[in-house]
Amino acid sequence: MKISSIAKSIVAGLAAGATAAVTAVQDNVLTTGEGVTIVLAVLGAWGITYAVPNRPKADG
Question: How far is the C-alpha of 27 from the C-alpha of 40, rounded, in Å?
């Protein structure tokens, strides 16, 4: 199964954003700082996941 780097980075961004959002709304209030943290988590996950190359397949 081949998954593109873009698809992997989208999934990673959604996972990071959802994790940050769940943590941020524990008190039922979303502040500006928490919103910035969510956005940075998504952007960071997108960038890091897209930048790291896939492992090459082993011959054999």
Answer: 20
